[in-house]
Amino acid sequence: MNALGYSHHRLVKVIRRESANAVHLSNLFHNPYQGPLAAKLAKWSGLDRVFFSNSGSEAMEGALKLARIYARKHATGGLPPRTRFLALENSFHGRTFGALSITSTAKYREPFEPLVPSVEFVRFNDVEDLEAKFEPNAEGGVCALVIEPVQGEGGIYPVSEEFWQSARDLTQAHQAALIADEIQSGLGRTGRRFAYQKFKARPDIVTVAKPLAGGLPLGAIIASEEFASAIAPGLHGSTFGGGPMICAVALEFLTLMEEEKLIENVRARGAELRAGLEKLAAKFDFVREVRGEGLMLGMELNVDGAPYVETALRNGLIINCTHEHTLRLLPPFIIRVQEVKEFLGKFEAVLAKTPKPKAKPAQHAAHAQAEPLSLAVAR
Ligand SMILES: Cc1ncc(COP(=O)(O)O)c(C=O)c1O
Questions:
Q1: H or E segment at 306?
Q2: How far apart are CA 361 and CA 105, in angstroms?
Q3: How large is the average pLDDT for residues 13-30?
Q4: Bridge-partner residues for 359, per DSSP?
Q5: In angstroms, rounded to a whole number, what is the distance separating the alpha carbons of residues 246 and 6?
Q6: How many CB atoms lie within 10 A of CB 140?
Q7: Quick one: how many helices (H) and strands (E) in the chain?
Q8: b/e sequence 166-190, b meaning 16+ C-beta within 10 Å
Q9: Average pLDDT of the chain?
Q10: 56-107, pLDDT tens digit by residue?
């Protein structure tokens, strides 16, 4: 995900410099960037230890394994280890088998079934359902609850404070891991380092990827000492994850975020963009709602979004549409005041001149099978 747009001069400089050194080292050897990058991610998240992967899905796989090994080590009273995973309806966690198994959308799952067993989906923001799902059943107890603090692919739905706190209380009471999937919402996107930081309670494990290395493939699992210490060398690993060049780029990205106060920019530009979108929502009767935080915004239409995507592309706006009727806006963190204005002007024209498609019935988040739409200003 191009959080710094493309060809950012500081990332280009690091890539040039590091490409003349060893771009890959066996993970049996130390490299100078992995430690400082891990330390920064630990500081940003308030957690303790980091494992690097090659993608978001792969980070999810490792997080699920970490929860299972922790439960195995903490099995008590002669009971079998807790092995069930809970995730939310309308979730998206990736395409590999473990990550897909905790992704609720039927069209992604069904062609590949049977998936990893012992997964159940909790109704979105429904505390009663969450409590019920934590009760041990024939498959045993819960070892992890996985939550996107703001559902991304699901159409930009933020989790409520009450639900998050209940998730924290229940996971603690059951010695289960609370895993925050911040692959889309993390590292500044919502105007905070992590979206969960608007809540009081911290998760045990956090996964990140998309913007981490400025568009190069890098993911990470960030965990508390309590959970991280449950796993031993040799139980998980990756050939390419955390190589010197990619870690140098990610370190530069996070340093630049701090030095250039990009989170403040995300908040300020996000507020301007949101205000502009709200105005458009009031003007066009086919816009149902504007949702989201920072520069992670969704505009839900009561008509098919695809024709708007096509018109936008023809008018210099890069838009990608999934979920049929929720337009998702994920502009780069470096977007400027003038570019927000330019986008809003062009986007208004797109909404006005696209022939209005046939109306679609509104869907509740928990039942939406639609795919959202990403949008950025083309320079
Ligand atoms: C919330 C979330 N989790 C996991 C993933 C999977 O990440 P990747 O595509 O890097 O495997 C994505 C990708 O869109 C995502 O948005």
A1: helix 306-314
A2: 18
A3: 94
A4: 303
A5: 16
A6: 16
A7: 12, 14
A8: bbbbbbeebbbbbbbbbbbbbbbbb
A9: 93
A10: 999 999 999 999 999 999 998 888 899 999 999 999 999 999 999 999 999 9
Query: Is 210 designated active site?
Result: yes
Which residue has its alpha carbon closest to ligand 1 atom 7? 56
Can you tell me the distance from the alpha carbon of 287 to that of 362, in angstroms, rounded to the nearest whole number?
11
Q: The tokens 């630990």 sit on which residue?
A: 42
Residue-level pLDDT at 82: 94
**DSSP string computed for 352-370:** HHSPPPPB-----GGG---
Question: Is the preceding peptide bond at 81 cis, omega within 30 degrees of 0?
Answer: no
- How large is the angle between the packed helices 244-259 and 262-283, nearest 10 degrees? 70
181 is known as an active-site residue: yes
Average pLDDT over residues 325-337: 94
Per-residue confidence at 360, pLDDT binned at 50, 70, 90?
low
129 an active-site residue? no
Q: Which atom of ligand 1 is least distant from the CA of 60?
A: 4
Strands (E) across 302-372 are located at: 317-321, 326-329
